Amino acid sequence: MTRIKIFLICLFVGSFLFAQVKENDKKNPPETNIKSGSANDSVKIYNPTIQSYKYWKEESPKTIFDTVLTIDKYYKNRMYNFKDYFGSMPFSNIGEAANQLLYSTKINSSIDLMPAGKSSNILGVEDIRYFDVQTPMTEFQYNNGYKQGHSLSSLFTHNINSRINYSIQYKGLRSEGKYMDQLASSNTLLFTTNYHTKNRRYQLWGHYMVANVNNEENAGIMYPENFENGDSRFKNRNRMEMNLSGANSKYEKRRFYIGQQLGLFSSGENLYPVSLRNILSYETTHYTYGETSTLNTFFDTQDNMFDGTNIKGHYNSKKLRKFTNFTSATFNWTDKLLFEAGLKYEHLEFKFDRPVDSSINYPQHIEDNRIGAAGNLTFNWKEGVILKSKAEALTGDTFKNSYFIDNHLVIQPIKNYYLDANLGIKSQIPSLNLLYNQSFYKKFNYFTENPSNERILQAGGTLHLKPFNTRIRAQFYDLNKYTYIDENAQPQQSGASVNIVQIGLQNSFQFKKFHLETHLAYQKVTNNSQILPLPEFVGRATFYYQSKAFKNHAEYQLGLNAYYFSKFKSRIFFPVTNEFRLQSSTENYNIGEYPVFDIFLQFKVKRMMIILEGQHFNSSLTGYDFYSTPLNPYTDFRLNVGVLWYIFT
Length: 649
Prior knowledge:
The chain is globular and about 75 Å long. It starts with a helix and ends with a strand. The protein has a 22-stranded antiparallel β-barrel. By secondary structure, the chain is mainly beta.
């Protein structure tokens, strides 16, 4: 560990690292309004406009803060993590897991320790925002939880001068939930900075993040019939017996990330077509599951636990350290061609923090040094045709070879009509959380020796049409050696491939001030559907009225939102590893075929947006068979409050 820290410091001091930002070529409104104090006054007053406040994410152009009231704002602001949940089913408490209804994957080669139940609460490198603001700016995002629970994110960013910016963001969440042993508690601290010299020859950006996601785990309700029968004694959900008591899971991620870029040759006007870049990242991930206050026998008897009488020892923990360094050369020819190629080094250390029992003889510590090449290409062949490609290939002694190729082609034959096609291939071992586990439950200890790479082929695209803002989407997935958790909570890799076909349609209809937004998705697992059960249909329709108010000083949307997915035999959430497992032969739970209705009022005053939502108001009217996963009901009716507020000072 000491050698890694020394190596990291040396590379940080001696390397040239990354921060390329490409501005849009469109003619934007001026960033400031210039006014004179009076006819005889030479003093000019600069009043910043919305164009003065911008942010960008890695490999994305600068974007102004969007303060326009749209229906997409409703889909995101109603959720504590600012993500549209279409294609998934959240659990009843904020800060918990979500059941994925539509299959999706990321085409990259990142080996990680990421439980499925924690993934929606963690910011990835691609989610980090960097800022350029002419005056200090503050962003608040608030959502209420259950039983005096809340989620609040506060961000402050400031340009020290025109070339250096910093931001500090803290997000805290605490919500008890309506059921016993359902407390969700998480926090994230994020610091970012970016800098460039006056001529932009040297650029730098970086961030430091600490995130903790902690949950009490109850494994669902013990007697589903008490819920489904609508028994008035159990309308107070806190009276329901749960399968686990005193159980909890904890996930922590820390990341240090910094990049720099140095231009080598100038072509004038602060442009450097050839440059050196370097990205350095060091992160640690820690996952712990424990039942240290109560003896539970839901998963197994006390005799089948290691040191069963010592409750304080009933926990298991695993950790991953990852160091990455990528050095490359970049050629950028105006906006027509961007080509980058370089070498990548990755060091991985996986270990179990404590041996549960001496009878477990598999390795407690795994290391791998991986090296390879990576690059990307952006080619604007001509107006209306854009090709973007990324590729990477790495090899190591422990986790062997991995690679990915991700291609996107945008073709726009005429204005407002275009096709965004994609083709991606990935070959890599699955999440380490699936492959290795150590537990005080004897039957949940496993170590997958020489795991095969999951090979994923993704092909499809989205056709955008101007009439009704129509978007037609089609995707095909071919999954070889798909890794899943079976009915015994053991990892398995499929012998035959899993094939998935998805077809989607989105429309936006408008009549005067009335709007209808629809999103429909058909999905079919055509091969090996028994190991990846998914619904065949997911749909959402939002009907709303949008208008100005208070002499055009405010704007509001008043509407009804409906969400539905077809019935299917869903996987069950398994809290020991925070993954989803298949049902056993004695289990026969189906979820879905149930509509969820929400009524909402979203209004905007200046740069503050507020959502008041009657979430799932039909819960007591259409039967008590609404589940997020088997044994885990979705939320009953509740008043959901969300606030998004930008303060430009």
